[in-house]
Each structure stands twice: as structure tokens, then as C-alpha cells.
Write a structure and sequence with these properties.
The longest helix is centred in the first third of the chain and has 12 residues, at 38-49. With 146 residues, the protein is an alpha+beta fold. The protein has one domain (4-145): Gcn5-related N-acetyltransferase (GNAT) (Aminopeptidase, 3-Layer(aba) Sandwich), CATH 3.40.630.30. The radius of gyration is 14 Å and the shape is globular. β6 and β7 (138-145) form a beta hairpin. The protein has five helices and seven strands, in the order βαααβββαβαββ. A seven-stranded mixed β-sheet has the order 1-2-3-4-5-7-6, with helices on both faces.
């Protein structure tokens, strides 16, 4: 069995990422739970891809996209964000893809996880992230990676 790989996201991934982001379970676990429109999503993705302080990667298993992981530089900390394809959930891919991105970008990381999202809490804890504080239903994790 082949391993999980990360590749750079492109505008060709826009429709797939849009569908993943608008999935009801994904929206329930997001900071912004509103359904997105495609034009706004396309503008957002183009801006992310054009921003050197942001990294967005697609995780693939046996050539099939299974998730997306992002790191946005906020000062000297990179804020992590991840989503698993609705059809690929429950296979442990999230932790693997986030760890793979962390391994490529050593430094300080943070993640904000909704307190009603046990899957992402498990990912953060499994990565060895420290729970720093909780505010407004959001858990704030951090990690220093060498």
C-alpha cells in the first residue's frame, strides 16, 4: 500500500475544495459555518495561492485526494487548518497529512479547534499539541517543532 503524499494545491482543485468546504459536517466544524458561494471561494483560493505566507497542500492516497491542509503565517507562528474529504473520513489521514506539513515547515504552530469537533481535537492531541486556552467554544492549541 502506498503512503499519503502532499502536493501543492492549484486552481484546478477549486471545485473539489469548494465541495469539501460546503459539506455540512465540515461547516459544523468550521469557524465560519456559513455556506460559501463558488465565486467567493475561487477568489479566496486564488489569493491563498498567490500569498507567500500561506501554504495549502492536497493530501493524496493512492492518487486520490483525501484532504487539504493549510498553514498561514501569523507573525512567527503558522496557524494550521485541515479538512478531510467526506468520503475519506475515519481513516486517520488528518493526523498524517498535518504531521507531513509540520515536518516540511519547522517552527511554531497553532490550531483553533471547535470544542464540538472531537475528530480535530484528537488530531491536535495526537500531534502533541498543547491546549493553551479555550475561548468562545474554541480550543487553542500550540506546538513547537524543530
Amino acid at each position: 500500500m502506498s503512503s499519503l503524499i502532499l502536493r501543492q494545491a492549484t486552481l484546478r482543485d477549486a471545485e473539489m475544495l469548494f465541495e469539501w468546504r460546503n459539506d455540512i459536517s465540515t461547516r459544523r466544524a468550521s469557524r465560519d459555518r456559513a455556506e460559501l458561494n463558488f465565486d467567493g471561494h475561487l477568489k479566496w483560493l486564488a489569493a491563498v495561492l498567490d500569498d507567500s505566507t500561506r501554504v495549502i497542500m492536497i493530501a493524496e492516497k493512492d492518487g486520490d485526494p483525501v484532504g487539504v491542509v493549510r498553514a498561514d503565517a501569523c507573525g512567527d507562528v503558522r496557524e494550521l487548518s485541515w479538512t478531510i474529504s467526506p468520503s475519506a473520513r475515519g481513516n486517520g489521514y488528518a493526523r498524517l497529512m498535518v504531521q507531513s506539513l509540520i515536518d516540511r515547515l519547522p517552527g511554531r504552530f497553532s490550531a483553533e479547534v471547535m470544542e464540538d469537533n472531537p475528530a480535530s481535537i484528537s488530531v491536535a492531541e495526537g500531534l502533541g499539541m498543547t491546549l493553551d486556552f479555550t475561548r468562545d467554544g474554541r480550543l487553542h492549541f500550540s506546538l513547537y517543532s524543530l
